[in-house]
Structure formats: C-alpha cells, structure tokens
Amino acid sequence: MLHRGLVILILVFMYFQLNLLLSFSRSFENLDINDSDEAILSMIPAELHKFLSLKPTNSTQTHSNGSDDKIFHISTLNISYIKDRIAQYNLQQRVLNENSFQSLENNSIVIVVQIHDRINYLRYLIVSLAQAPGISHTLLIFSHDYYDEQMNSLVQSIDFCKVIQIFYPYSIQAHPKEFPGEDPKDCPRDMKKEHAVQKKCNNALSPDVHGHYREAKFTQTKHHWWWKANRVFKQLEVTRNHRGLIVMLEEDHYVGRDFIHTLRLMEKTSKESCSHCNVFSLGTYMKTYNYYANSKKVEISPWIGGKHNMGMAFNRSTWMQIVDCATFFCGYDDYNWDWSLQQVSEKCLKQKLHAMVAVAPRVFHIGECGFHHRKNNCRSNSVISRVQQVLKLSRRYFYPDRLILTYSTVPKKTEPSKGNGGWGDKRDHKLCMGMTVG
User: Which one of 39, 282, 299, 350 has the lowest number of neighbouring Cβ atoms within 10 Å?
Assistant: First the structure.
C-alpha cells in the first residue's frame, strides 16, 4: 500500500513538473502579442523613451519606405565633407562621457556595435543596453559604415556609459562611383567571363567561384567587420592594449538584462571547466526558448559561423590567432565574414575556435528585414514586442548563480566545400590585407 502511494506521488510530481516545463517553453512565433507603439513603450522605462524619439537634423532629410524597420536617408552632404568628417572622427578618437565613468580596466568588457543606417533597430538596441546592470562599467564602441547626422546625434545622446565612434573609411557612401564602391567600369555580376574579357571591364579576370562578379553592397560587410576588429584591437588608443573581452553586436540586436552577468559567468566557467573555449556566444537563432529549463545551460561546440555569430565575444589572445590567418580570411571566396571565419578556424588556426553558447539566449536578432531577410510584413514592432514578452515572462530565471555545461554533437560536414562566393575580386583581397594590423 505504501509502495503504491509512493508511485502515485511520484507520478503526480512528474506530471506537474512536465506541465511547468511546457508552460515556460516560449515559442517566438506563437506568442500572443500587442505590437502597438503604446504597448512597446509601456515595457520600457519612461526615462529611456528619449532614445526612441525622432530628431531630424538640418543636414539630412528622411523618409520612410512604408515600414518602420529602416529609415532611408537622402543626404545633402557632399562626398568631400563626409570623407573629411570620417577622417576627423577617426583621428580624434574622442571618448564621450569619459569623465562620468571609471577608467577602462584590463578586465572591463568592451562592446562593439557594427551599424549601417537602420536607425529604428539601433534605438531599441540602445534601450536594451541601457537596462543592463553593469553597463556603466563598459566601453561602447559604435563602428559606422554610413555617415549620418541623425545617427550621430542618437549615439552621442547616450549617457549611461563611455562611448566612442569609429567610421569605416572605405564605405560605399564615401566611394559611390569607385572601388570599393560601384565603379561604372566594373563587370556586371552575371556577365560571362569571356564577354567580360572582351569588354575589358575592370575585374574581368577575377569572377568568384560561381562565375559571378563582385557586388559592392555585399562585400562591404566583411570588409567592415575585419577593419573594425583590427581597429579596436590594434589602433584605438583606448583599447589597443586591452586584454579583456570584446563583445561583437550589430544594430539589429537586442540584449537581455543579464547579458553582462551571463558573459562574466561564461568567462569564469571557461577558466574552470573549458580551457579550450575561446569564443562566447550570447545569441541563438532558435525560435523556441525555455528559460525554466535552460537559463543555466551553456553548450560547448566547435564554432559554426551561421549559428554562433550573434553576440559573440573573445579576447586579444584569440584575436591574435585569427589575425595570423589574415591571408586566408582575406583570400577566401565568401562575402560573409562569419563563413570566412569558420574556414579560418577549420583550415588555418592551430587551436580551432570553440564556442560556449548560451542555450537560453541573452542576445536576440530583431532585424527581420534587411540584408538577407525580406518579408512581406517588414515592421520591427512585431519582433521587438515578441522579444520583450519572452524577456518579461522569463525574467525570474535570469541571473543564474552557475552554469551547466552540455556538449553538442557536430556533423562531420558543416559547410559546402567551396564558399558562397562574392569575394573573387583581387582588389577586395588587397584592400582586406591592407586593413590588417598584425
């Protein structure tokens, strides 16, 4: 009788545990949300609403494309002025709020945000960063490849940590009719090589692995990523000797409140239990999250470009190994920096990149529409609202006191034998190597 009662008690306990587990498994796609501006604002502290207000400047006109994910800029600034301003910013290396916060220490976290011109996404990234405890001890670096006064005003309004702006100097905006922009004498993407040679267009002899010629809008992101990393690790006065973690974010990311806490735990856990883990990934592209079951879990895996590129962090030691493979990175025929970096890891590095990945993400991708993503409903509100709801429903499971390691099984082949192309032009290889600081 006692045995039967014990069995029933165990079954009842398991039933309630299973239901509890399922109740906290949140599907990103199926959340019942209110994505109105009012609902989203209600989830954001009133003192941070200032980052969401639009403040047009005299030098830039703006208009919308019918969605609110991106603001298109009709710049009245001439190319010479843009180049001059970019050069001035990069020369001055001015740290905003420098006297309001403590100096950067050797173990401080540096956050680098690569941005283009999607200002609405950037506003929400800034709002999310502002709510993270510990943010005041970080340095926030914004790396621009598009000069715009409205974007500058937004970045320069940040008052919760130290901030510095750097500008990728070889942007399409600053070189619209010449390499690395779109030179009128370049070969069209789909022109056959025989025709290109006859026509004698600039890059006739260097199509990519798929027989296509370069497109500037695709090559820029890889160039910018490589320039930014070299700039931060080797050229900026404030970071060139820094040995702490560098976190890589993008303008269409959104961070959870405990992302700094979790990153610190990952760093501590790697020293204690995973000495070969040299990259920390805070984001994931999964659509279903279970913070009840997974808030303490991290997965150990070889670094895979398409999976572990969101909210990734590494230190100077890892970067010095990567930059030693500059020739491989710059010459690999793939316009994606992450796929190129994966090939560096697999075929060049002595110690491959191994990621410690947060199973319950602390960085989210809110850019549903943009470079690689085109959807019928390109409204940023929808995704932002879903992220807010996931974070709200899961907040009791944030700030874990420890991490639990799990190990992934890796397929034998993680990528096609040849790259995605778009990077066959010898001029791109040369520019990339020219930006390398060993």
Answer: 350
According to the annotation, is 195 in a ligand binding site? no
| Whole-number Å distance between alpha carbons of 141 and 90 | 12
Report whether 365 belongs to an annotated binding site.
yes
Q: Is the peptide bond before 416 cis (omega within 30 degrees of 0)?
A: no
Residue 324 assigned as binding residue: no
- The closest of 288, 426, 422, 421 to 359, measured between CA atoms, is 288
Token pair belonging to 429:
């290889």
Q: What is the Cα–Cα distance from 403 to 436, expressed in whole angstroms?
A: 36
pLDDT per residue as tens digits for the range 305-343 = 999 999 999 999 999 999 999 999 999 999 999 999 999
- Of 353, 375, 339, nearest to 221 (Cα)? 339
Euclidean distance between the first and final Cα of the chain, in Å? 75
252 a known binding residue?
A: yes
- Provide the mean pLDDT of the chain: 88
How would you classify the pairing of strands 25-27 and 60-64?
A: unpaired
Pairs from 391-394 (Cβ < 8 Å, separation ≥ 24): 391/256, 391/257, 392/43, 393/24, 393/26, 394/24, 394/26, 394/289, 394/291, 394/292, 394/295, 394/360
- DSSP-H helix ranges across 117-255: 119-130, 149-156, 193-199, 216-230
For residue 214, give both structure tokens: 């370069």
Q: Answer for the pair 259, 132: CB distance below 8 angstroms, yes or no.
A: yes
Is 116 part of any known ligand binding site?
A: yes
The pLDDT of 218-242, averaged and rounded, is 97
